[in-house]
Amino acid sequence: MKKIVCVAVVGKANDPLYFQDFSGGTEENRLKLHYIVHCSLDIIEDKPGVKKVSNDMYLGLLYPTEDYKVYGFLTNTKIKFIIVVLDTTDIKDSDIKVLHLRYVRTASNPFYKANKKIESKIFQNDVAAIVQSL
């Protein structure tokens, strides 16, 4: 089973830009992962220092559930990266920064509309490759 269960990219207005479930589970499990990602947004907002402008911030472990751990990363443009992993897995900041670099490459494409849903096949393949490598 893969270590990374879910990857989400959330815009500055908390609008979903990208969500991918890698668990291969049921629709019920997919809804559970949506709920976990949604709950993590509240935790990110409550973190100290999040409201001020700073360099890219690895937020670390946001919270554990009974099955998963949720990690976060916030850019200075308030784009949030949320990764849900199995409870036996830990994620380092360098792991999420690789995902952030792929997002920057996608967002730098002149055909990408800022703060819109990411539908790039290249980005989806990059995320799948990152998930496989961890």
Automatic annotation (TrEMBL):
| A Pfam family that the UniProt record links to this protein | Sedlin_N
**Record's family?**
Belongs to the TRAPP small subunits family. Sedlin subfamily.
- Supply one GO BP term: endoplasmic reticulum to Golgi vesicle-mediated transport
Q: Which CDD domains match?
A: TRAPPC2L
User: Could you tell me the superkingdom of the organism this chain comes from?
Assistant: Eukaryota
Q: Which GO terms describe its cellular component?
A: cytoplasm
> What is this protein called in UniProt?
Trafficking protein particle complex subunit 2-like protein
